[in-house]
């Protein structure tokens, strides 16, 4: 009985020494929204969103995706992804990415459009 009581007191003392978990404030990250809400890209293929050369999201027509990212530079690349739709197999494509400099506490919205060199990001208004 004595050992159990000493063990319980020791466990409570150890838990008291651990600092409580706390959520970071909203200004510690930036929000990046990438939208395909308009029909500017004339394909029904899925578009992959690569952040720093890692596939981070997929966007279909009339959809958007968002990311909570730390402030600083991020490279964004868009690419047609092979999928269930015919004609969506990846071919020779532009491998350039767009470098965005994100600020803490900022909400950035971009829309996907078709440019001279293929898919590109264009700044969009937040609309609220």
From TrEMBL:
Keywords: Signal. The keyword Signal applies. Residues 1-23 form the signal peptide. This is 3-phosphoglycerate kinase.
